[in-house]
Amino acid sequence: HIETRDLETLWTYYGYPSPSRAMLATLKQQANLYGFGKTTKRLRKGVEAANNAGVDLTWDYYLAAVKKLEEMEAGKMPEYV
After folding, report:
1. Strand, coil or helix: what is 20?
2. What dihedral do alpha carbons 59, 38, 47, 49 form, nearest 10°?
3. What is the dihedral of CA 60, 61, 63, 65, to 10 degrees?
4. I need a surface site. Which of 8, 31, 45, 79 has the fewest CB within 10 A?
């Protein structure tokens, strides 16, 4: 079980805004399912995507990173890598 304060340390470190209740519930569920390693990787990939786009970091970038990484793990590689 990963505590909210531990997740808060991660999202604060990576520069994410405070999540909504729904986003926090999603984050907690995924963190408890996949652990710190995958959660950290997903947070980092969201930051990279927002930086590459030149926009402010939002939780949408985290969710997009989750989706893309899950697709890649399932063997669905994007046309460009």
Report:
1. coil
2. -90
3. 160
4. 79
**Distance between CA atoms of residues 77 and 56, nearest Å:** 27
Chain position carrying tokens 């808060």? 8
The residue type of 10 is L
Residue indicated by tokens 């969201």: 46
- The reported pLDDT for the residue numbered 64 is 93
Instruction: Identify whether the C-beta of residue 27 lies closer than 8 Å to the C-beta of residue 7.
Output: yes
* pLDDT at residue number 24: 97
CA–CA dist 24, 16 (Å, integer): 12
The pLDDT value given to residue 5: 96
Cα 75 from Cα 35, distance rounded (Å): 21
Taking only the tens place, the pLDDT of each residue in 4-41 is 999 999 999 999 999 999 999 999 999 999 999 999 99
For the chain, give every domain's residue range: 4-73
